[in-house]
Amino acid sequence: MYRLQSLAARSLIAGALDQCSPLTLTSLTGVRHKSQGPSVEKYGQMRFITAEAKVAAERLNGKIREKTLTMETLNPQVKAVEYAVRGPIVIKAGEIERYLEEGGTKPFSEVIKANIGDAHAMGQQPITFLRQVVALCTFPELMDSPSFPEDVKWRARRILQGCGGHSLGSYSASPGVECIRKDIASYIEQRDEGVPADWENIYLTTGASDGIMTILRLLVSGKDSSRTGVMIPIPQYPLYSAAISEMDAVQVNYYLDEDNCWALDINELHRAYQAAKQRCQPRVICIINPGNPTGQVQSKKCIEEVLHFAYEENLFVMSDEVYQDNVYAPDCQFHSFKKVLYEMGPEYFNSVELASFHSTSKGYTGECGFRGGYMEVINMDPEVKAQLVKLLSVRLCPPLAGQAAMDVIVNPPQPDELSFKQFHQEKSSVLGALAEKAKLTEQILNAVPGIKCNPVQGAMYAFPQIFIPPKAVEEAKALGMQPDMLYCLRLLEETGICVVPGSGFGQKDGTYHFRMTILPSTEKLKVLLGKVRDFHISFLKEYSALE
Amino acid sequence: MTENGCEYRERVLTMDTMNPNVKRVEYAVRGPIVQRAVQIERELKMGIKKPFTEVIKANIGDCHAMGQKPITFFRQVLALCSYPDLLEDSKFPEDAKSRARRILQACGGGSLGAYSTSQGIEMVRQDVARYIERRDGGITCDPDNIYLSTGASDAIVTMLKLLVSGEGASRTGVMISIPQYPLYSAALAELGAVQISYYLDEDNCWSLDINELRRALQEAKKHCRPRALCIINPGNPTGQVQSRQCIEDVIRFAAEEHLFLMADEVYQDNVYADGCKFHSFKKVLFEMGMEYSQKVELASFHSTSKCYMGECGFRGGYMEVVNLDPEVKVQLTKLVSVRLCPPVPGQALLDVVVSPPQPDEPSYDTFMKERTDTLATLAEKASMTQEILNQVPGIKCNPVQGAMYTFPRIQLPPKAIQEAKEKGQAPDMFYCMKLLEEKGICLVPGSGFGQRDGTYHFRMTILPPKEKLKIVLAKIKEFHQHFVEQYS
After folding, report:
1. Alpha-carbon span A501 to A4, nearest angstrom
2. Running DSSP on this structure, what letter comes out for residue B461?
3. Is the ipTM of this complex over 0.95?
4. Contacts of B271-277 spanning 24+ positions with Cβ under 8 A
5. Where would you find the membrane-spanning parts of this chain (chain B) (predicted)?
6. Nearest by CB to A169, which of B76, B312, B337?
7. pTM for the full model?
8. Residue A14 pLDDT level (bands cut at 50, 70, 90)
9. Which residues of A touch B75 (CB under 8 A)?
10. Do B68 and A165 touch (CB under 8 A)?
């Protein structure tokens, strides 16, 4: 994605990128907008003086001093990282937002950021119980306040007792607060209907991303054809490709079957694995279930097949299950990899190495900002586990407020507790609304000619395929950008809707998609989908007319 | 091999197949000695008799765990942000409420639960910039140069990640002080960079000697490409506060040698010694004139974990980058975006830390009292620690001018050194293990931070409450005398 900017830099000279120049111009020259408070002028002056002075200083030295850290000397793996979910299109959306705030005019009055699964930003309300517990943990003087129910106080007290000096301000042990790890283990046992979970296999993390990166870091080794290969679905959540680039591992793509509701096809796994073996050593397979960005929910049988495959080919399994509570389709159910592995018998359960990930950011709580999460690691070599603990310890500990939030999620109010009714009502209302929006999105998008959208069985996104006319594809190529990037940039410019081009997640050659979240409120989502429809139709018309 | 009666195949991930850089990582502050301390704690809980009743963990600068109380105002604001219904509660002062409202307004959907931009909430970055300007006597700070982080550690690792490149003799070398805070050596090991050690001058209050920097650099040039210089000021674990002159020398050195400067300034409010003052690298850099201020690349780091607030668990922090190549800055922003954002409660906390109550606000008096008390107590404990330790024959302790630790040198009898070597342990690890087993005091051996060959140290934090600290110091004294007797 970021290649766009350097490409843009080149094509600017030819004036080829006029349509998207706001993005490129600002990021290239660092020009600031005016609305940033009284100090703006100062920045302007500073910059001017800086430029002058630089030249003077350079003259003084009789040579031009190169910076120590430049694009040439930068860690090449950092350069290779791409992360579309917060890529150029989002940067541009931010700029348009500021432009509107300054009183600029656009054919729309607000930017709707449907690029990311950021529930609260989209108006979803926090779960009261969770926030009450966190507030009490933060300011324990409130323990005396009659306005907090006893079950809240009880939980807060318990968490604080697990914290050094009874304060959220102390470091926890690097794997997390012990009583929270224990609560997570019992939660998993309950979820998996009795499959044992050992709390010492649980590690709290800074959001799931942190856990995923850490496990990958352990796994990446070797050189050339023995370099670690990491199998990831395409389309994928770009954290995976970004981490693989950063660690210089080999990305091994397996394609999900779009014609079959984005299901995982075991034959495709075999194909990808065999093809990759020639250039690397595939050592790990990543699964996202429910799927991001694709929204499919994996069947139990399919999970069995994957685990069998991993067993046969000796792969470490990483299952990203952060959307485990986000299943909407009536005929779908979430099955954890751990449980399925257990049910496959001891031969599998005692040997397949599995790390599964969960987070506070999704589900019905949507607490992204707290950066809470955990991973459960099973069958990991005990010596490697010691290395994992050591690696985690360098970063000291995950944020305590996030750990507290995680604790509430795994230890919610029980039917006999005071807060149960409200909690239950809030939870069902969030999940009910999401299910409704999942359906609505699929229906409206499928009614648009040239858009084809699989059912959103779970997670928080639709990833529809869009038909882009050959003329538009041609134009995009001339601009040095992906056709769906052109599409999304135009959508943003014309409607204020920010979605992420499918090319940021990966897709079969010649197909184009975008990812949008279903999180906006039902009313807003309807407006948004209506705008997407109108835009798509006029886009088709515009470029078909050129044929 | 069998497990649960089942034969199993070779694992995918073993010590042999694991990322070799991970193997090389070492982090003594939470190393084997701390793991043993946790074990002993469990044993005590189980009723196993020990010559002590509790383990005192003086291994880490964990203020609240040592009984330091949070600053009320900060926690009020955070509680309000976490549960905005409390904005209606009359028990909260208005200034706390207005801060909370302002922070929430800057959050997506008015909630701490929304992701922030990856660089951090813009308003918080603006507040940080103004704070830096005030601190540095008006030198301009651009909020665009501020990156909020998950504690300072996160930002330090990120900056190092950008800097590491090349192969063989052109691999990036990073200069770090010895003794150092082991985050640096750990990050360098993980990134496969070359560590260049420069030794601080123990005989001179652990001050930084520019000739030593030169020596280290010249030697390193033979096998790597030195590209960055890390400074910890006030020093961790060594507690020295750098003089302004010394900072100037370092900056000049960095300019001449073309080094990227990384200034770890997380203890900037922890200066206790008379005659010592904190000078930020940024300020000194800008006072040295445009020849320097326009060209030396600098990243400086701060955190919510230390100073008077000691809010380690919130993982708040920021870095300011100066003279960073604009294209590289885009890359930095991209890199941090993969992790989405630093924890928002930590960002909120940082915001209050950089914009504390003002004299005309209702919370001002309480806030000032709490702040002053904490810092005064720390100063008192710093001088007490130094005094008591220096009375022990065989222990020599430099003044704790700043930060939160003492790093005394300990004389170990040759017999003890020999026994340690037979056990395959660093002699000071041997010493600290015995101290833990016999007295229940958990310290970190100097070998975990690096020290001159043949010298031995330990790091202990000065954070325990005064009464407890006295006991800790008395126990160390007793132990040391006994240890020396035993091995002489």
Report:
1. 13
2. E
3. no
4. B271/B234, B271/B241, B271/B401, B271/B402, B272/B378, B272/B379, B272/B382, B272/B383, B272/B400, B272/B401, B272/B402, B273/B241, B273/B382, B273/B399, B273/B400, B273/B401, B273/B402, B276/B241, B276/B401, B276/B402, B277/B241, B277/B244
5. none
6. B312
7. 0.89
8. very low
9. 138-139
10. yes
